Amino acid sequence: MSSTTPAAGRKLSWTTKFTYALLPLSFTMSTMVVTWQMIYYTQPLAIAIGVVTALLAVGKAIGGFITPVWGYISDRMYATSFGRRIGRRKGTLLIAAPLNLIFYVALWVPNMPVWYYLVVNVIYYAVYPGINTVVYSLPSEMTDDSKDRAALVAIQQIGGGVGGFAFSMFNTYLFKVWGADGWQPYFKVAMIYGVLGTVLLVIGALCIKERPYDETTDIAAADKGDAGKVGFFGRLVSVFWNFLSVLRIKTFRNYLGIYLAQQTFRMVRGTINGYFILFVLLLTPAEVSLSTGFSFLFGMVCVVVWATVISKLGGMRSYRLGAWVTIALFVGILILGLNVANLPKSTVTLVFTVLITLFTLGNSGIVNAQTYVQSFVPDVDELVTGKRREGQYAGIQSTLEVIINTVVTIIVGVILQAVGFQSGADVKTQSPLVVNVLLYMYCGTVIVLAFVGILLTYRMHLTEKTHDILVAESARLRNGGLMSEVSDETRKVVEDLAGIPYEQCWGNNNVINAMHKAA
Question: What sections of the protein cross the membrane (predicted)?
């Protein structure tokens, strides 16, 4: 496997980093789904919002149960001849990409019965994690070097920013050419992004670097234990055991709280962003894309800024700084929303564009810091299990995204239906109650959960210094060092990050295999 190289002891080339950026750039496909799918179903297709939120929630929930399988498969792809020849991460991407395209297209077929949309949403949300679980795992998979990981995280955000900006600007043009009425414009835009996204995904997949097949990447050996082989039922049990048993690792539990806080407020904002701009600010779809496009463009600059800040302040201090900026800006958006009736439309457009663009500064800090810290969590897991399970943690994160998306979709739909939201209604005919609920839901959720995230960062002890100690200890044990020779400082750091006694680390536990007994 020419594309498979050891993660430790080698710097990544800029060519590798550039081609890695193509993977998050391909996420414009999913941006189309998150931004426009709900509006597409409720406006041009005029499906009742209660029905739409129910079918989307069911689709995401059922897909979420399948999501852990992708991380499990990705980690264990080396157990197959295909995986050893192609690569465990690359092989997973090349399987998932064509399936994702097929069911992405199916989402946008118009005028079908409700059961059709339910089925295709279930399958789409079951297939898509096969892509993002791999992409999320790559900063940890491709290198052990902290600076290279920080660069990959920044490149991941820049790739998403470039894609988002291009998506928004191109949408502005296409909506002007095709209009915003009827299903045809949404369908045609979705097809364009489906093809482009898949091409970028395949090119990026062919160029990624991976850890080689060795003792630490042979997860199948840990699954088998003394049994020699694992049957279908055993595999099924193992998928969910691996999904749940990671909660025993203290660092992951601390990270989980931080992730849930920021992901929830981002999902709430994303889910109702179109409704907020259409019904609260009374702007047009073209203006929605224009303001979003400016924020993404500014976001590329912010990523570079935050990469520098993170290198100076560390992950958690940077997270707190980004969260405070976010809180301040959403207080400003709340004030703007309360005064829309007293301001000319041009002023509302200008002020919102400025505020949402500046929000990118805070949001970029939060996301970059969280993603940066997340790339170190598998290193704690390696010291606990003696195996590299980047896919496991990426799969868990994908599952959490689905769960949060599902819960947010249900709650938003229930609330809007309860207050009298009218599907297919003109932007000026929604009731004042609906407008106020959208305003406070959009701003209040961000403000409250950003503050919660700030509080949770003080519990996170995985810093650059403790990470270096952790990686050095894993390397020592991997090279035949004895656990009995651990230093007092290293023992203290490991036990604090792992949350279990040092003697129960390095595979002397049942975190991977429920039947395994400590040595």
Answer: 20-39, 45-70, 91-109, 115-138, 150-170, 190-208, 267-284, 290-309, 321-341, 347-366, 398-419, 439-458
Other C-beta atoms within 10 Å of 512: how many?
25
Q: What is the DSSP letter of 279?
A: I
Find the length of the chain. Answer: 519
Please tell me what DSSP assigns to residue 516.
Answer: P
Q: CA-CA distance, 181 to 348, in Å (whole number)?
A: 24
Percent of residues, the chain, with pLDDT higher than 70: 89
For tokens 């980093």, the residue is: 17
pLDDT tens column, 375-410: 889 999 999 988 888 888 887 877 787 778 778 878
Q: CA 292: distance to chain centroid? A: 19
Closest C-alpha to 89, from 20, 42, 171: 20
All residues at 6 or more sequence positions from 285 whose CB lies less than 8 Å from its CB, including other chains: 175, 180, 274, 278
- Please, is 459 exposed, middle or buried when counting C-beta atoms within 10 Å of its C-beta (0-12, 13-18, 19+)? middle
104: closest CA among 203, 187, 205?
187
DSSP string, 334-391: HHHHHTGGGS-HHHHHHHHHHHHHHHHHHHHHHHHHHHHHHTTHHHHHHHHHSS--HH
- Specify whether the CB–CB gap between 296 and 360 falls below 8 A: yes
Amino acid identity for residue 110 in this structure: P
Residue 1, pLDDT score: 34
Tens of pLDDT, residue by residue over 293-340, are 555 667 778 888 888 888 788 888 999 999 999 999 999 999 999 998
State how far the Cα of 241 lies from the Cα of 244, in Å rounded to an integer: 5
342-385 per-position pLDDT tens digit: 988 888 888 888 888 888 889 889 988 988 888 889 999 999 98
CA distance 33 to 37: 5
